[in-house]
Each structure stands twice: as C-alpha cells, then as structure tokens.
Write a structure and sequence with these properties.
Layout: H1 7-65, H2 70-162
Helix pairs in contact: 1-2
C-alpha cells in the first residue's frame, strides 16, 4: 500500500491538536485557581467585616456598662476606622483579583478557540486520508476484478481451443 503523501502534515496536525488540548487544560486550571483565590479574598473581606461589627458591638457594650472610659473610646473608634481602611484595601485586592479572573477567562476562551481550530483541521485531514484510503481500496478491488476477469477469459479461450 502506498504511503499517504500528507502523512507528515497529519502528524503535525495531531501534535497541534494535542498541544491545544494541553493548553486548554492549563488555561482552565488557571481560571479555576484564580476564581478560588477571588473567593478566598471575598471570604476574607466578610471575616473582616464581621470582626469589625463584633468589635463595634463589644465597644458599645463596654461603654454602656461603664467598663470603658471615654478616653479609651476614642482609641477604640480609631481602631474601628483602621479596620474600615483595611476593608477598603481588601476591596481593592478583590477588584484586582476580579480582573485576574477576567483575564484568565479570556485566555481560556482563546485556548478553546485554538483547540476548536486545531480539531477541525485535524478532522478535515483525517477525512481526506480516509477518502484517499477508500479510493485506493476501490482501485485495488477494480484491478483485482480486472485481473480475475482476464484469468477467466484466458481459461475460457483455452477451453474453446481444446474443444471443451
């Protein structure tokens, strides 16, 4: 059987598809990692808010029961203000992480598009090879059929000459 003339190109396309699959898997894993990190940042913000609210209620309770002096109150409220500033910084980190998630999502979509293209190119070439093999098989069958017809004709002619 003759060698498929586009075999080298077929192998290149197979490798390209495999690399595109691997890149897509890496991009999807990176996206999941970035989404998890975003969720961790959001969870941290929620913990910070809960801590601030808890401390504010604690300070208000101490002030109401007389366990906290007025001078300690101003220090407590400054601390609450610092906690609010940290929350604002955390919100900034969350915004930055959201952008990282969007970038990872865009990268994954690009990798997915490249995978689709590589798969389509491989499929087209594979289909071409299959049709080439079918054509080759049909040609071989026709040649074999013609050879058998020639053998049959030769045998018939020999019988006629012998008088059978």
């Amino acid at each position: 059987m003759p060698k498929y003339r586009l075999q080298a190109l077929l192998q290149i396309r197979e490798r390209a598809e495999q690399e595109a699959k691997e890149e897509f898997a890496r991009a999807a894993a990176h996206l999941r990692q970035q989404e998890e990190r975003l969720q961790e940042e959001k969870d941290e913000l929620e913990r910070m808010i809960e801590d601030r609210k808890r401390r504010r209620a604690e300070y208000a309770n101490k002030l109401a029961t007389g366990q906290m002096k007025i001078t300690e109150q101003s220090a407590a409220y400054r601390y609450i203000d610092r906690l609010k500033e940290r929350e604002a910084e955390q919100r900034g980190r969350i915004d930055g992480q959201r952008e990282m998630v969007h970038e990872a999502d865009r990268a994954m979509k690009r990798a997915q598009d490249e995978l689709v293209v590589a798969t389509q190119e491989l499929k087209a070439l594979t289909k071409h090879k299959e049709s080439w093999e079918t054509k080759l098989k049909r040609e071989r069958e026709l040649k074999e059929e013609n050879t058998l017809d020639e053998i049959g004709q030769t045998m018939y002619q020999q019988r006629l000459r012998r008088g059978y």
